[in-house]
Amino acid sequence: MTKNFLSLSSIFLFLLLSINPTFAKSENDNKTIKLATTTSTENSGLLKAILPEFEKDSGYKVHTIAVGTGKALRMGRDGDVDVLLVHSKKEEDKFIADGDGEKRFGVMYNDFVIVGPKNDPAKLTDSKNTTEALNKISKSKSIFISRGDDSGTHKKELSLWKAANIDIKANSGKWYREAGQGMGKILQMAGEMGAYTITDRGTWLAYESKSPLKIAFEGDPILFNPYGIIAVSSKKYPNLNTTGAHSLINWITSAKGQYLIGKFKVAGKILFTPNATSVAKAKITH
Fold first, then answer.
1. Distance between CA atoms of 232 and 103, rounded to whole angstroms?
2. What is the pLDDT at residue 200?
3. Can you state the percent helix, strand and coil of the chain, rounding each to 5?
4. I need a labelling partner for 164 at 20 to 30 A (CA). Which of 21, 47, 207, 252 fits?
5. For the segment 162-185, what is each residue's pLDDT rounded down to a tens digit?
6. Contact 249, 276 (CB under 8 A)
7. 100 burial class (0-12, 13-18, 19+ CB within 10 angstroms)?
8. Cα 81 to Cα 65: distance, rounded to the nearest angstrom
9. Which of the four CATH numbers 3.30.390.10, 3.40.190.10, 1.20.120.450, 3.30.565.10 does domain 111-223 have?
C-alpha cells in the first residue's frame, strides 16, 4: 500500500512539473534579476563598478544582457527580462504607454559627442551646431561609421541626420557605413578607418586613451543623453522577478546608488551624472 502510494505520488509530481515547469524552480532561482541594458553602460565599465555593491546589499545576482536599446525594449516586450536600463526616452515612453513596462525612473545622463580623426578633415571643430557639423561630413564625403543596430545611440544619430535634412539612405555604402555593432567596436572601427562617428561620452571616455580619434564636435544641447530604468510589466508577465526589478530600481535611484554612479570616473572624468533626484539641465559642462 505504502509502495503504491509513493509510486502514485511520484507520478503526480512528475505530471505537475511537466505541465508547469516553473513549479520546479527553487527559491534561489528568484534571486537572479535579468537586466537588459545598453552597450554603453557595459562598455564604459559602469555596471562592473556598481552592480557588485547592489548584489552585496540585496542578495540578488544580476544577469546583465548588453544590447542596443531597441533590442532591449524588444526583450522587455517579449518578457525575456525583468528590468531595462536604456537611453531612448521617446521609445521608453511608448514602451510604457503600450503596457509593456511600469513607471520610468531617471537614473543618470551624459551627452553624445562626434569623434573623428585628429586632423579633422571635415573641419567640424568650429561648427556652430550639430546640423552644421553633419552637413560638413556630408559635403566632404568623409567616412562616417553608424552603429546601424537600432540602439539608443543609433536612434539619436538617425534623428540628427533627419533634422539636418541629409539623406543617408542615398549615401549608404558610400561615405555612410552601417556596421551593426556595439559602441566599443564602432570606436575601434572608426579609429582604424580614420572615420567619424557619434558616441555617448561615457563610452568615449572609457576608450579615449587607446583611440587615435579625438572629439570633433560637442556641447550642443540637442546631444543630451538621459538614461532611464523600467520594470517590465508584471501584469503582462506575472512570472517575472518583479520584486527583484523593483529592488534594483530602488537601489540605483537611492542615495548610495546615485553616489556610486557619480563617483565612477575614468582618467579623473565623470562618465555619467546621476539625476534620479533632480531635473537634469540639457546643457552639460565637463
1. 9
2. 92
3. 45, 25, 30
4. 207
5. 999 999 999 999 999 999 998 999
6. no
7. buried
8. 9
9. 3.40.190.10
